[in-house]
Structure formats: C-alpha cells, structure tokens
Amino acid sequence: MGSETNERVLMGPGPSDVHPNVLREMAKPLLGHLDPAFLTVMNETMSLLRQVYQTENKLTLAMSGTGSAGMETVFVNLVEPGDKVVICVNGLFGQRMVDVASRCGATVIEVKAPWGEIIDITKVKTTLEQHPDVALVAVVHAETSTGVLQPLEQLSQIVHDYEALFVCDMVTSLGGVPTLIDERKIDAAYSGTQKCLSAPPGLAPVTFSERAVHKMEKRKTKVQSWYLDLSMIQNYWGEERSYHHTAPITMVYGLHESLRLIINEGLEQVFERHRHFGEALHKGLDQMGLKLLVQKEHRLPQLTSVLIPDGVDDVNVRKQLLTKYGIEIGGGLGELKGKVWRIGLMGFNAKQRNVTLFLAALQDVLATNSKA
Ligand SMILES: *Cc1c(COP(=O)(O)O)cnc(C)c1O
Q: What is the model's pTM?
C-alpha cells in the first residue's frame, strides 16, 4: 500500500473512483451471509439492479467476481457444446467474448468491424441468413477499448427475427448510458461494479430474460463451471436461500449503496450528467487541436479515446500526469497500443472539476513533451 498521501483521480477505463458513501458503507461490520438482515440487503440490491438495468427480469443479481466473471456467467449458462454463436468484434472485449464462448464449446462466427467503428448490422443480417440456426448473438454495448457506443435497437430486431438470443456486454454502459434491457429486448447482459457504478471491482451484475431462462432450463448438459452455475446461484439469491458459496458481503454493501445513489440522483439525470461532461471533454480536446478516435455520433460520453499526437511519448505523458497531478488515464490496448489515450469520466467522476483538471494537466504535460 502506498502512503496515505497518494492522492489519485482515476480517469482511466476502470477502476474509477469510488463514491465516498460507498467506501463508508463498506467499512460497516459484517453480517453472516444467511443473516435475515443481509437477506434484506440482497433483496434490495436485486430490486435496485432491476431499476438501473431498466428491466423487470426476475433473474437479476450480482455474481461474485469482476466484469469478466459476468461475461463468463452469460456464456457458460447460455451456451452448450456445439451451439452456433455470432460474436461482434470491434475491440478487445469482443475478442474476449470469442475466447470465452469457444471455451464453452461453441462454434463461433465472428462479425468484425475496425477498432473505433460500430458493427455494421447488415453484416450481422447476412451472417444470420447464412446460418439461420444460430443460438445467440453477442455484442459489446460500450467498447471500453475504443470508446464506441453500439446502437442496439435494430440489431436486436434482426437477432429476434432469427429467434436467437441477444446478449450485450454492458460493463461500461451500466450507470453511464441507458441500457433499456426490456425496451430493447436484450436477453442477457452483464456488467461490473468498477466502471460507472463507482464501486470497487468485485461484483458482476447480470440480468436474464424469460427466453434466456428457458434456454437454460432446457440444457442437456451441466454448466461446466460449478462456481458460475446460475441454477444453483439462483437458489441462494432467490427464495430458497441455500448455501452455495459465501457471498462477498462487503462488496454487496458497496453495490447496494452505489445503486441507491444512482436512483436517488435519478437515472435520467445520471445519463444527462455523463453526456454533458463527456461532451465538455470532447470539446476541450478538440480546442487543444487533438483528434478523437471515434466519430461524433458513436462516441461514448464516459470513455474517450484521443489520438496521441505525432512525436509525443505515450508512456512519458501518462507517467507525468500521474506523478505531477495524480491523474491516471489509460493507454491503448491491442492494436491501439501506443496510438491512443483512454480517458474515463465514469459515475462519480463525471464532473466539471475532473474535466477542467484533466484538460489543464494535459496541456501542461504536453507542453514539455512535444518536439515541435
Ligand atoms: C472492464 C470491461 C470488462 C472486464 O471487466 P473486469 O472487471 O476487468 O473483469 C469487460 N467488458 C468491458 C466492455 C469492459 O469495459
């Protein structure tokens, strides 16, 4: 652990800063994981999760683990060996879904787009025409490796025309942009606590439609992961309350408080706050003469990829932002390594102070790092 004076502003792709009220809740003494008082906290957490996910799905709960555990939960429970699945890949997290689905024994068909662009839905349509027996189509809603926001409405329609399940990675979207699970007929989604929910990494909220539940009930094979098997996890979060594994009690306190804060502020207000400060950041970067990776209409407000100007040392700039200003931002991943910086304005962090602080700090650091 660093010294007490290590002040940081976490403006990367996650983890983002934790709301002080969440930290305070997490300092409270433990309850047993079957204590009636803790069961009340769990019930409230499920209800708050439904509100923030914008769904009435009964099967909505938080898996133990980070966002990737949420991804794995969706695939291990919905995919049986031999199932054909279509995965849209326009960044690192799409690639990760391909890996996870293949490990479940799925036959994976990829629909690709260049990093920084959205998925072309006509390509998904053509793929489904060629493979009408596809069981599931998955896409990343908010691609944190690029800063792209994928439009979902028409894609969902196409997927349902072919009677496949529609799965969305909502790790960076939940609590930042509307997820509208029911309105968009999304059959399964997963998220994480460490992005726009302003809680530490450690839980993965998931939600499943009736159609998805039906597919799980019809399985011929056992879910290959014991830890992530929803047929057992449901019995702990649901009426039965039977022991499966010990819930990460403190993390549930944290998630409960972070969701409560979002509902208290108002979902629409929270989305508007992200939109407002995301735009302010985009405008500020533009005024500095910097170029953004993603074209305007497909930009995420909560995660911005800015191109590193020619002749500027990627690592040095990030190092100076951290040592001089305590600001953490992210570098590029995969094919964008060394080409972009990724700046997060997630949850609690989406505020004027951070926009102003970051723009001023970057200007200062760039002045000493540019060759020109
Ligand atoms: C962060 C992230 C993940 C993985 O979450 P972890 O908490 O790192 O396991 C998955 N998908 C997207 C879009 C993400 O941003």
A: 0.97
Domain layout of the chain by residue ranges = 3-16+267-367, 20-263
Q: Strands of 136-140's sheet, edge to edge?
A: 59-64, 203-208, 188-190, 165-169, 136-140, 84-89, 107-112
* Among candidate residues 184, 193, 178, the one with its CA nearest the CA of residue 53: 178
Q: Which atom of ligand 1 is nearest to the CA of 201?
A: 7
> Ligand 1: which residues within 6 Å by Cβ?
14, 66-68, 71, 93, 140, 142, 144, 169, 171-172, 192, 194, 201
Task: Compute the distance from residue 67 Cα to the ligand 1 centre, in Å.
Answer: 5
Q: How far is the CA of 302 from the centre of ligand 1 (A)?
A: 14
Among 144, 150, 170, 342, name the best residue to mutate to test ligand 1's pocket (greatest count of ligand atoms within 8 A of Cβ): 144
Taking the centre of ligand 1 as the mean of its atom positions, its distance from the CA of residue 18, in whole angstroms, is 16
Check if the beta carbon of residue 23 is closer than 8 Å to that of residue 255.
no
CATH fourth-level superfamily of 3-16+267-367? Aspartate Aminotransferase, domain 1 (3.90.1150.10)
Q: What is the mean pLDDT of each run of 10 residues along the chain (372 residues)?
A: 73 97 98 94 98 98 98 98 98 98 98 98 98 98 98 98 98 98 98 98 98 97 97 91 94 98 98 98 98 98 98 97 97 96 98 98 93 56
Of ligand 1's atoms, which has the minimum distance to the CA of residue 93?
Answer: 11
CATH class of 20-263: alpha beta
User: What values do phi and psi take at 215, rounded to 5?
Assistant: -65, -40
